[in-house]
Amino acid sequence: MPRLVRSLVFAVVSFGALSAAHADDKGVDFIDDAKLLYRIAACGGTDAVDDKLTKIVEKHCKAITEKLDKFKAEYFTKNREWFTTVVPKDVPKTVVYPFGGGDLISALVAFPDATEITTISLELAGDPRRLRTLKPTQVQLSLSGLRAEIGGLISNGSNTTENLSAGQHNDLPAQVSSFMLGLVAGGYEPVSMRFFTLDDTGAIHYLEQSEIDAIDKESAKKLKKKPPPPPKPVAEGEPVPANPPKPVTAKTHFWLSPNFSLAFSNVEIQYRKIGETTIRVHRHIGWNLSDGYLKTHPQLIRHLEKKGQVTMLVKGASYLLWSPGFSTVRGYILDHLAWMLSDSTGVPPAFAKPAGMVQETYGMFTGAFLESWQATKHDEDFVELWKTQKKRKLPFRFGYVDMAKQAHLVVTRPRAP
After folding, report:
1. What's the predicted TM-score (pTM) here?
2. What is the mean pLDDT of residues 336-342?
3. CA 313/CA 285 separation, integer angstroms
């Protein structure tokens, strides 16, 4: 993680720890901003928009709705039966999605009965306040950028980290906008939106206005300073795997530092099915999942451990769970999964089997999608896993394809006693 972001995130975490005495406070509710993003960025509902924005929003929503309708037809309707058949009815309704980026929509596809979903990625949630202050030309440019940044997500349920990273410089909060898009796709609506930090025990502290003001001020100071040297290239938005078997050559880029206040790193969105009263919760936590960062910032793991055994989703994770540099989060996954759905970027057999896990394959897998991980031990183990199991159909793509562009998924679960 770039030094600027790393120092600011640490400041936000520390601020949360200092404010733990106010843990009972509910924090500032940005529901009005959430509803505005729901309407303008995600094209949900039919509320009127400012006359100056009408044509801009209509053009944006025409493009978004066409793609979203196709996505809903493919994943929420046509292939709903696959998930209904494969996902056990008694899996925990608490879902954890490491390396999840802005991908709430996939969690809603796979686990529509979930009552709590946590996504985690380097990308931070984003400042929702800007939309009210943007000029029409700025809104138009931001919406155009947003369509590019989330295009893959609503085309095939996956997105490149280059796009996710670019969203950190959009005037609109790309992550929050993506979450709103997921709500629209699933037929949900936002009920509240708050931002939070984690204290040293992993407990949530919701930010009050005075705290947001203080973090705004500190962030502004940091962002005005001369930027640090560009970080070294990373693969798919995360640190380069420690001692990779081959040089990382595929899809490398520079991860962009956010250009907004670090008060808006972590978000909690409460939502409900339109027409229903049951409140569900989605939280996104902006955190580096590499071993080095988790060692010095253990609040996230402490927070996740409090959830007990959970349902998990991993896809499009750049094969980082194959790397020795991500052993902490891999260990958390293996210790706490009740049931997990992943593509080949999930936990490899060499780690899953000794942990007492059973893995069942779907679709076809002949080698890793990213060249840098092909013909490695974990790659060969996964190829062998698919070869030794009966063929189970997978009629759609959900995450990475393999090196031959074939769709595949694997279920990982504890071995029955």
Report:
1. 0.85
2. 98
3. 15
